[in-house]
Design goal:
Eight copies of one chain form a homooctamer.
Chain A (H helix, E strand, L loop, with lengths): L2 H12 L5 H10 L2 E3 L4 E3 H7 L3 E4 L5 H12 L5 E4 L3 H11 L7 E3 L4 E4 L12 E5 L5 H13 L4 E4 L7 H12 L3 E6 L5 H8 L4 E5 L11 H8 L6 E3 L5 H12 L4
Parallel strand pairs in A: 3-4, 7-8, 7-9, 9-10, 10-11
Antiparallel strand pairs in A: 1-2, 4-6, 5-6
Helix pairs in contact in A: 1-2, 4-5, 6-10
Chain lengths: 255, 255, 255, 255, 255, 255, 255, 255
């Protein structure tokens, strides 16, 4: 809990403006509210000054709609991740006409609601580099997330290590970024090569794109964890959102 | 290779100041030299303006001594990682009296040579948080690395999740950092808790400390990759060096 | 087999009241009966004084209906676990109007029949704590089971480690329990934190909620087995029933 | 942190008896002290009223000696686990004559110091059942732990499932326990059989005893997690201490 | 290839009765014929004097029908394994009225054609023991196979280790067998218990019945391989056919 | 990038025929063109003088159609792999009547377009040997690939190790090849046997054909990697294409 | 427990010759005796009429000596398995001159004591076939075991699949056996080939001989479980004893 | 067995020059001889015209010496692989002064005896490319093997993907090879990059160099199997010998 809030509440106690019981109640009710099935934490959004993020994967369309409505009432932006086409349709149906500005990106599997203009707060753009066409959905999730959290985004696609001259052509464009997210399936060798070329922070996202001994992303995950390029940072398989969230934290002006 | 160098060389060609063959030779010989068993890349150190890093694990004491001597001749600082006690002794014996300022840290398993004062180039301190006493060697490797690469370091030790009140007491000290490195063995839950408390970038280092179903670090590795705190970044098991290297890239003033 | 029964039978033999063959027959036919496809063990229910439990997962609707009918004839309560919606419909269809009081809980995937009032035999309530919304089905299975086996239940939901202040708010409510069941997917760190806060027995249930390197529950399973909080007890992935069954054994007044 | 302590401190603030800064300081320094390399938590021992437990595995003999001395100064009992013969010798050497009552159990790999008589606080004995001779060290660790934490212990040894008549002979002795700890290596089938015989809580400890496809304890770990006997609870491979710690929590009179 | 056949052919060559080319042709065409997609080996059936066995899993209904027809033309019995309901329907449709005696067992997933009376050639019955109801399909596959290969079969069902008194009741019936096949999912402990009770050869079949850490049969597979009962023999997960085939080889009168 | 091209471009710069900017532009646009979702690399086809290869698995029918059209405009042949029936239909629909010569092989899951006669450039035929009927799709993919890349193909089917006399009969036919591709599922022992019989390069392809402990191809993959026949080379599970591609490189006249 | 014994005891009770308590005592003390650290089961040896078997791996030399002495007092033969050189020396030292006929086989790692002539009770010889020289220790363990349990043994060595002509030469010698034990490391393909050649029961023993992706025997274990030769039976990695024990059960005249 | 030999023998039979028995004897005794512990196959060396290869890993120094002597008597060259320093010393001691020309390479762990000049029979050199210094022993094993089997060798060292400009500098030297062996530990990305640069056959050798999630070579093994560069061929972890053996087969003039 935020120390300033506690301080304020305690000063109220000290100054006799409130009893201990009142203070306790105030603290408890403040930064989230109970929707019955999940406690939505507005606190987080406040800290970040940007879109509230909702993980859509194990929620029903009705649950997502309820959360979106609750957030929108406070005029905040919303990002819902891991929403498949059918669930997106259900969310729309449940929200109705007042939410026609809710946008669905089928590749990124995201729902976004922009009720405020997004203020760019990142120091530099975030570059998102993709090894193969099949990795685009994960890269798209990262791109939508990075944008909703207040970053410019540079996209570089289809520059796998097996045709490494393409990578060198594209290099100029990603070297002006503040962080690089590298999305790669199959054997996931791209972050090692990029990590050896640049001095920027590199976040590697293994994807489940592959077959056989790729083991649903295990192969590139191990590759990235063992990268001979020092300092490659790794997130979970197919976790484009997590990579963009971390990149935002790295890229913030005030850190 | 650095575009400016290529540009300079090509302008020489364009202006007739040098032939193609000369330019090629210049480029080839520049940033590294052949020691027979390994090409030492001075290039990297130049880019980073700090210590040259050598991975000591699979090199003999003689090989390490040779590399250290080669770097020291250019008056650069040196950091050698993953050196056990016996190998450190061999390195010293091979280098002799001229290298009495070579320092060995038995816990961190590092050899360091500071021939230049280390210039602090990081924006803020790097916090290194440890869950248990047994994780200290990995945290020490991270701390030595962070310092040699030009960062202030904040240490917080023994604040595991099973005694979570300790963590809250220590919180103030790590919240003024620019990046947090969290080192944890056993089940490795600490980065999730810290990742939920702060908005700074969090780099998680799983350690092989544990037994049985800890599987030499697999358990905390999986824990960290699946963290419910968004944006936790993961490096290889016991890779304190890699965490500090990445933290340095994140923390640099000029990015 | 129960020693008292054997004793009684043997005394019959000793006293000449029955031949060895008769005694053997009596012993054999007593505590279960053959339904052709499975021997229903009424014995167990007798020992526990509560609902007879049936694992529904690999049985057809027809088989489940047959077993339910057989148990109900002895006026016992029934709990059937791991029944999906379609199978529940088949069971109902097969049982007909005489079983309209058969209740189906879609989240918990349980069928329950209460033909006797459930007598509370647990010393204290059983607390069931859930990390995320997606873990509710497993927690619901645990809750239905705990109730059917004669326990009061306290529910605490959505208190994951990434928002740990929520957990502290909820702490008072679960500290009055006799046992705590902690249900957690993703990285499954919650039992470690709770295990460090309380001195009650903690039963941890990993769930398959997650993706990528969560490996269908392997990640939280390993986390829980390696918990740095001493004494965390673990059951199989998604096994809400097993956790509640064990909690009932721990919580019984007479042990 | 304990609510009563906070309450007392806050009432001091409310009543003007202390400033916020003083209260904060008091809270911070209370329940542990800094030994430099590890924060010893006396808090825990106070809550449990019994021996303070120290995990010896990754500590040096000197570190263990320091912690033992610190605890003994408060006249508390001490249990140090996972100490091999050489380390035990180092601890003794470092502690000297004042600690001649420090006892080392080579099979259990424990050091124990009893400066207070152990008060039996468990409701019933804890039974510790072993499948094979090779599993005795883990069972011994459990037995020493159970005793040091205030329990009577019943030992039953060498009753593996391949000679199941032995198990039935021994049954009477373990049925009067309050909890049963079953230690088993190889395929680890014993907890399933015992779990089907009794209605007591069963804690299963897989051991690394076996070879080939036993995979250092993975085989019995999986066996126990999948037990067809409902309610078998599992701890980490070779974790005799954890089993006894959990059994103590289950067995306490006041829960 | 059979040495006698080669001898005969070679004597033909020696005696001038046939050229090398003729002999070669004769050898090639003898014991199988080319159906285009698979070489059916009548040879095997001849050696075994019983049903020809066809693995149906990766063949189309049309392919199976072709093979069945080819075998039936030689008046041999046929056993096709791993045929699901839809494929069975296709086979029937393709074979038409002349094959109305083709029998499909939905649980065992077998097609059988008995054009000759099955001669019992086994020394004793083969006992097939099942731990749980869900394991019946694999046991049924074993039973159908054992019968088609010329064995009497004893079935014992639902005698899992968690209700071990049932097993002892059933013991008399399986002790008169020549071999025991034990089929068990979940943790697969049953073969260990039976292996300790009898001195007959025991073949253990792990099944994929279970969830979570059962890992599709890995848990009982490891259990059975590590059985503390000496001499338990193991086949692949769900391989009821293989167990019965091996049991037949063990049980043959002439070995 | 090809050194000659760079040389030519640089000579232009040296001779003043072009500015640096022009040269850079020329280099960038040369060997591929941007289709928006993927950079098609005509370069590769040029190097190989044969069909351009497209991996169809994670592309939509529309994307494949676009790539095929782009390649066909340069009168090149096309091979698209890993296309299931539905996707093949979509590709056809999108391409229309001008591509009626596009051929789909349902077993191999390939689309092929032959706009030029295929010139045989391999030194000798490539033999493709299959252990079981179920492995045919992978072998077919290898065969189509080998042919499209300019090789003659010898097919040998259904010669598994369990009926090893068939293998010896077939031996003469595959010994005249230049490379042997061995496709095997189940336990994958065939490459070891063939590797011991011949002195030709052997490429082993494990397939996912099997069940239980075959683990979707892991079993034959490990078998092949550990082959006691020296020099067996392995590709990914089910990777018929990769095997044929490598075989083509080995078999080329000019290497 | 043996039904006849129970019957006798119960008849005593029925006829008034003994009280229940007496009978109980008699039953309990009969077939084993307590040595303090392990209950030696003479029962087993009686059933098998041959050597008593002791697993030496996790016992000390002193423990083994105690057990050997206890068995020898009843004039039984003894087989101790998994005894390394140092432990064997300790056993000898502890037993002294009275046990000079105790024989140690360094390759098989067995101690044997023959106080009775071994009576051959097997129907036919047991063949033990080895793929490579390095597999000999496991095969030797099997051979010693088979002999001590009353079987003739045929040895065939070094007939791996990579030189398959050797196997065919040796075939005549193993076809007269009653059971074949095939010991193979590396990829473990030999049992598949032999299983396809013979109609005898085949017991496959994977060994840990290999490196890299052999994973200490996992590779041949999976190979053997997935054998395309029907009916191959598998035991644990390096378990030569278990294979010979099972072979003895198969080979016994009276089954 | 070689068809020509069989043909010759059979023609002898047909022409009456020899009886069947004589021919059989001749065939049996020809290409190997029995040394008691292993059948040395001279046949193989004859086919390859080069050094006889012996796998030293699981043989004693005495056994190796025996085999070397046996081969040397036929004036053949010998290559013994996987011999550590101590064993090499034993071999030398056993062979004595007559084998002073036996050479030991400590890095490659090979013993070589050149009694004949090695005739170069490869079409082109074999290039052996190494990613890191620590991979040199495996590369050295490959180099010694390639040379002993009649190939020229090109060595390129220390060109890992993290400093990819070094690779481009070295490219000219390996493009004139006939086959490329790429040896790489850590994440093993190098074969993917090289496979994308060249059109030569690429054999990838994963090494166990790394730590943590490298899992003794599993990480680079999976990387190489999933390479996005088509046609990369893989051998077992650390199998430098196997790579060179396969490269020799590919490189032979007569294939």
């Amino acid at each position: 809990m935020h120390p300033d809030k506690i301080r304020a509440v305690l000063e109220g106690v000290r100054d006799g403006r409130s009893s201990v019981e009142q203070a306790l109640g105030a603290l408890r009710d403040l930064p989230y509210e109970d929707l019955g099935f999940a406690r939505v934490d507005h606190h987080r959004a406040l800290r970040q000054g940007h879109a509230e993020v909702v993980l859509g994967q194990w929620k029903t369309g009705e649950q997502i709609a309820g959360i979106v409505r609750s957030i929108a009432e406070r005029s905040q932006n919303v990002l819902v991740t891991r929403v498949d086409v059918d669930k997106a349709r259900n969310v729309r149906a449940a929200l109705g006409a007042a939410f026609e500005d809710l946008r669905y990106d089928e590749s990124a599997r995201t729902l976004t609601l922009e009720r405020q203009a997004i203020e760019i707060r990142g120091r530099k753009p975030i570059a998102i580099v993709t090894a193969g066409t099949a990795d685009l959905p994960v890269a798209d999730e990262a791109a939508v997330t990075a944008r909703m959290l207040g970053n410019e985004v540079i996209r570089v696609t289809d520059v796998g290590v097996a045709g490494i001259h393409r990578l060198f052509d594209a290099r100029a464009s990603f070297e002006r970024a503040g962080v690089i997210i590298v999305v790669a399936g199959m054997e996931g060798a791209l972050p090692s090569v990029i990590g050896g070329l640049v001095t920027l922070p590199v976040i590697a996202v293994p994807t489940s794109v592959g077959y056989g001994a790729q083991f649903q992303g295990l192969a590139p995950l191990l590759t990235m964890l063992n990268s001979c390029a020092s300092g490659v940072l790794v997130v979970n398989i197919d976790n484009g959102f997590g990579a963009a969230f971390a990149a935002t934290q790295i890229n913030r002006r005030d850190t």
